[in-house]
Design brief:
The complex is a heterodimer of chains A (251) and B (211).
Chain A lengths: L4 E9 L2 E6 L2 E7 L1 H11 L4 E5 L7 H14 L4 E4 L5 H9 L4 E4 L1 H5 L2 H10 L4 E10 L2 E6 L4 E6 H11 L3 E6 L11 H10 L4 E4 L5 H9 L4 E4 L1 H4 L5 H10 L8
Parallel strand pairs in A: 1-4, 1-12, 4-5, 5-6, 6-7, 7-10, 10-11, 11-12
Antiparallel strand pairs in A: 1-2, 2-3, 7-8, 8-9
Chain B lengths: L1 E4 L7 H9 L4 E4 L10 E4 L5 H11 L1 H10 L4 E4 L1 H4 L2 E4 L5 E2 L4 E7 L8 E6 L1 E2 L17 E6 L1 E5 L5 E6 L3 E8 L2 E4 L7 H22 L1
Parallel strand pairs in B: 1-2, 1-3, 3-4, 4-14, 5-7
Antiparallel strand pairs in B: 5-6, 7-11, 8-10, 9-12, 12-13, 13-14
The chains are: A alpha/beta (251), B alpha/beta (211).
């Protein structure tokens, strides 16, 4: 049976892992390659490396991280952050990434999803969506959650999949960084709306939060600080989920 | 020395990194003649079947691979590279494959999400339970898949592993010294490494027995 996936996310700035709470108060955590390898050994099913480096000149430091991860870590990993063109896709895929996630650039230029999926295959195009409940509907936000696009979540997700996105990461901003649980309802609803895997993101604080969202339609669950700060051990989490009868890869 | 065949499809370096870790010597090549000096061959691949076969033919790899297999040289096809071993695929039309393993490639017909993406389990077919290729592998072990099409082998005897995704499909084949894996061993952590190691051992065995 296809397993539910547990995915640690590593925000990387200038070659180091950082994690903010609701996109603020960023703290330095560790070396991305060392941490990625450790997560892989503890049983992480996939990894996400998100480049939040502000300056374009330091892009090469991140690419170096991607190459080192590809050499040393033998589970799939996604790279995101600052991906704006088909060339950006090619560069990180060539460096060894398995999937590439786009967010703001896809909203600005939806054709990018078509181009990338035609060139490299649907399976490596991940559409990452930041959403927040505003005036009675789920809106899509961009620029690290600062700008409301006015787009409606489900419409945008459907369009993205139609254009060739092979997976959706749904980051519910109301829940992000506050550790009160994933938004199970909107995540489950999205998983029913699209026929590609949906990865839940934002809000994980304890084991039960993972169970809730994975039981209700999410194919995978992503988290950062709870793993980085050792509040949740991946091995314990996966054993817990397996004991609750979810299909989980142990070991 | 294992040759990793470069015909312009997919990331070959990840396969090489995995072999490096296992201390299996390998080189990436886009020259069919290089296959003569290798002891084993790996045919990776991501993308569409028809396009991949065109690239293999353009470069002259198709005949060379078939020739080397006939000489007894071990071959491992990974993902699309496994599908290419078969007679025919129905991905975007009808395309002829390498014809090394009898059977064809068809699309998943299921209500489940396609592509079949993520970690899923292996079950070894009874006739291969004691084969060295499955050494260290347990039923229920997870490996990483990303694919929308799968192989239907004509002969049950060629099936190595099956996996359940709405139906039990063939997730690996083995026929003499030709192995095909629908999943990505290079991305499948310890289980994948064990399978690559087993292939590496097959390569050394065949090499010793042919000298």
């Amino acid at each position: 049976m296809l397993a539910k996936r547990i995915i640690p996310c590593l925000d990387v700035r200038d070659g180091r892992v950082v994690k903010g709470t609701q996109f603020q108060n960023i703290q330095d955590v560790d070396d991305p390659v060392v941490l990625g390898k450790q997560y892989s050994e503890l049983g992480a099913d996939e990894l996400v490396f998100y480049d939040i480096t502000a300056s374009h000149e330091k892009r090469s430091i991140f690419l170096d991280v991607v190459e080192r991860v590809a050499e040393e870590v033998h589970i799939p990993f996604t790279v995101g952050g600052g991906i704006a063109t088909v060339d950006d896709f090619r560069t990180v895929l060539k460096a060894g990434a398995d999937k590439v996630s786009v967010n703001s650039a896809a909203v600005r230029n939806p054709g990018l999803i078509n181009l990338a999926s035609e060139r490299f295959g649907d399976q490596c195009v991940v559409l990452s969506i930041d959403t927040k409940f505003v005036n009675g509907q789920w809106n899509v936000f961009v620029q690290g959650g600062r700008k409301d696009t006015g787009l409606e979540l489900f419409e945008w997700a459907r369009e993205g999949v139609q254009r060739g996105a092979g997976e959706i990461v749904l980051n519910v901003m109301n829940a992000d960084g506050v550790k009160t649980g994933y938004d199970v309802e909107v995540t489950g609803q999205l998983a029913q709306t699209v026929n590609v895997p949906v990865v839940a993101s934002g809000g994980a604080g304890k084991n039960e939060h993972f169970l809730d969202v994975l039981k209700n339609g999410a194919d995978a669950a992503l988290a950062a600080s709870v793993f980085h700060f050792g509040e949740i051990e991946i091995q314990d989490l996966k054993q817990f989920l397996s004991n609750e009868d979810l299909p989980i890869r142990l070991g | 020395m294992i040759a990793i065949i470069d015909y312009g499809a997919g990331n070959l370096r990840n396969v090489k990194h995995a072999l490096n870790l296992l201390e299996l010597e390998s080189f990436i090549t886009n020259q069919p003649d290089d296959l003569s000096r290798a002891n084993g061959m790996i045919l990776p691949g991501v993308g569409a079947f028809g396009h991949a076969m065109d690239r293999l033919r353009e470069k002259g790899f198709d005949q060379k691979i078939v020739e080397e297999v006939a000489n007894g040289k071990p071959l491992l096809g990974i993902c699309l590279g496994m599908q290419l071993l078969f007679d025919k695929s129905y991905e975007h039309g009808e395309h002829e494959g390498l014809g090394i393993i009898p059977g064809e490639i068809v699309r998943f017909n299921t209500d489940l999400k396609v592509p079949h993406m993520g970690w899923n389990q292996l079950e070894t077919e009874n006739h291969y339970k004691n084969h060295p290729m499955v050494r260290g592998i347990q039923d229920g072990d997870y490996v990483y898949f990303v694919h929308s099409f799968f192989a239907k082998a004509n002969n049950e005897q060629d099936v190595l592993f099956k996996t359940d995704y709405g139906q039990r499909f063939t997730s690996a084949v083995l026929r003499d010294h030709v192995v095909g894996m629908q999943f990505h061993p290079e991305k499948s952590s310890k289980v994948g490494m064990q399978l690559l190691k087993n292939f590496g051992e097959m390569v050394s065995r065949e090499h010793i027995s042919s000298n």
